[in-house]
Every structure is written in C-alpha cells, then in structure tokens.
Amino acid sequence: MMYDCDKDIRAFHKDEVTLPQTEQDAMRDRRDRNRKRLREGLSKASKPAPDEFVKQGSYAMKTMLRHPQNDYDIDCPPSAPMAQI
User: Are 64 and 72 within 8 A, CB to CB?
Assistant: First the structure.
C-alpha cells in the first residue's frame, strides 16, 4: 500500500511556498503606490499616462514563491499605444 502524501504536500505548499495574505496585501499596496507615482510623475512632466499595466511573470501566473529576505518584484509594466510613446 502506498502512503498518501497529499496532505503533507498541501501543508508544505501552504506554509512554505504560498505568500501569506499579509505579504500579498503589502505587495499590492507597493504596486499601487508605484503606479500612482508613475502616473503623477508623467502628468507633471506633461507626458501621457499608460493605458494599462500588464501583469506578467510569476505574479500573473500566481506562482510567486516565498523569498527568505522578502525580496520580491511584481512584473506589471505600463502599456501605451506606440503613438503615445
């Protein structure tokens, strides 16, 4: 008979891999502040604002892993039509 390790794997993933909600919330807050800072800076410089921010990488795929020193980045660059660039 084989040992069912599903519970062990799920517990490890929850405890060691998935970012806790507090860290997810803090990252979203930093992301939102950076977006606001970019929009305001472009506005002050009389430059067009991005149309959108495009999620990509592990952030978009929801596969971010815990980093021992909380060194994360959110791949979410601004996007605008070429005519505005």
Answer: yes
**The 3-state secondary structure of 19-82, one letter per residue:** CCHHHHHHHHHHHHHHHHHHHHHHHHCCCCCCCEECCCHHHHHCCCCCCCCCCCCCCCCEECCH
What tens digit of pLDDT does each residue of 44-69 get? Answer: 999 888 888 887 777 777 777 776 77
Contact 78, 50 (CB under 8 A): yes
Question: How many whole angstroms separate alpha carbon 30 and alpha carbon 28?
Answer: 5
Give dist(CA 20, CA 16) in Å, integer.
9
pLDDT at 83 over 60: no
Take residue 26 and report the two structure tokens written for it. Answer: 């803090």
- Specify the pTM: 0.67
Beta bridge partners of 79: 52
d(CA 48, CA 80): 9
